[in-house]
Amino acid sequence: MKAVTWQGPRKMSVETVPDPTIQKPDDAIIEVTSTAICGSDLHLYEVMGPFMEPGDIVGHEPMGRVVEAGPNSGLSVGDRVVIPFQIACGSCFFCDRGLQTQCETTQVTETGMGAPLFGYSALYGQIPGGQAEYLRVPHADYGPIAVGDELEDHRYLFLSDVLPTAWQGVAYTGASAGDSLAVMGLGPIGQFVARIAAHQGMQVYAVEPEKERRDMAARHGVEVHDLSDDAVETIREATHGRGVDAVVDAVGMEAHGGAQGVMAKFAQLSAQYAPEKLGQSMMQNAGMDRLAALYSSIELVRRGGTISLSGVYGGQASPLPLLTLFDKQITVRQGQANVKRWVEQILPLVEDDADPLGVDDFVTHTLPLEDAPGAYETFQKKEDGCIKVVLKPQS
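Structure for Threonine dehydrogenase-like Zn-dependent dehydrogenase, as requested:
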């Protein structure tokens, strides 16, 4: 089969690789009909190289049709399914509490991490990913989300990651109708964070440097601001001088701005070209994150407010202004999205003819799998108005 593989920093390649096979009774194989490039994939593209090996198959936002089903998978050939980005058992201590990303059965104990993720480095199990023609799905008796045949793929595809991640980001703020919420960054996650919060009746502000991304969010009732020196103060003035009730940081480790960001970017890039073990040690033990978005979130949120981190951070010693966090009594919540925890609430919205979350106004680029390397570059450079790329392996 054809698959998108990581070959080095900023180097993706579509290669012919062996077809996946059933390995355990609860496995299934799907033919991938749509698969997306995630903002988190860009971290692999440029930052997370020390935990990648040439030939690793990437991608964690797939959907498709079952073509082979293990006897304990609970699936049948022909079933149309969306695959959550994490692999969980559904019945352990953590899964029972809606914390599928911490699944006790599947935890990557070798690296001290939680549940394995499709196509996301040795840190998370080095599981072959979904930017491919076919995908082996472990624990298929629990993970896959069965969907109907009536709607196009793009209506369902983002149940794999983007929508649950954004939904959890909003839920973790504890904000509700009538509250104010700011979103730092309007990439794919930030777009849906803003729309979900607006759908739930909040006053939503967003800060984003790219005009195309601001324009997309503005179409969905979001008050948008350029990334400027006075953006935080302007939003603060609009919230009675206090700041917003909650902030969702949808940027993560590669935020722009600040002297600390320059140094962290240098450290990130240095780690990519260090010997493998040294690079891993740098990532695991140093302050590798560019924290401009988080610092702005701390400045923008009101006293007693909440910050929800949806953007991925990867450093172990990144400096935080603990005095400010303590003095302002700020609550911080974070973590990989627990996909199956939120799907029942989201599914009716993506199937609603009125499209209340604007899923039809999200994908900017639909391309064959062969075009993936160029799509990664375009997405990473924010060129051609690129906000969300969907790849079609069977085209």
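The domain at 164-334 is CATH 3.40.50.720 (Rossmann fold).
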